[in-house]
Design goal:
- This protein is an alpha/beta fold and about 160 residues long.
- It has a single domain, classed as Mannitol-specific EII, Chain A, CATH 3.40.930.
- About 40% of the residues lie in helices and about 25% in strands.
- The protein is built from six helices and seven strands.
- The longest helix has 12 residues.
- It is globular and about 40 Å long.
């Protein structure tokens, strides 16, 4: 992960214990938190839901279900938001193959650098294929801990 992309991870963008019974609720709550901080445009919610329907982002790993939602053209200020909901949230599987993914961790990518989204996605997917980093990440109880653990493993 490039230095500039590492700066997109901030404790203010970590939301632990979000009470979201479904994907729509998670997106709605996340948008309501990101908008006042100046990270997303007014059409973010519509665009991210549309993008998720067309190109699902659920990823089942050996240790945890994750989702990596993102959308183009609705990022006002680059960011990576991390949500660990109270209970897993159902996401359709990436590439539409496999069972519904019960996401215990959602990383919303607001990367605007040319080619950056793909690069960050690859780094995160590689990270989540490793058991130890995922266990350590899931054990974090603060935004600061979540960010420092992610940065440690993303290089």
């Amino acid at each position: 992960m490039r230095g500039a992309d590492r700066e997109l991870l901030r404790p203010e963008l970590v939301f632990l214990g979000m009470d979201a019974p479904d994907r729509a609720s998670l997106f709605s709550q996340l948008g309501a938190r990101l908008a006042p901080l100046g990270y997303v445009t007014p059409d973010w919610l519509e665009r991210i839901e549309e993008r998720e329907r067309a190109y699902p982002t659920g990823l089942a790993t050996a240790t945890v279900g994750i989702a990596l939602p993102h959308a183009d053209g609705c990022v006002a200020r680059p960011y990576i938001a991390i949500v660990r909901p109270l209970a897993p949230v159902a996401f359709e599987p990436m590439a539409g193959v496999g069972d519904t993914v019960e996401a215990e961790l959602v990383l919303n990518l607001g990367v605007t650098r040319e080619g950056g989204q793909v690069e960050v996605l690859q780094g995160l997917m590689n990270l989540f294929m490793q058991e130890d980093p995922v266990r350590r990440l899931m054990a974090q109880t603060t935004g600061e801990g979540m960010v420092s653990t992610l940065l440690e493993f993303l290089g």
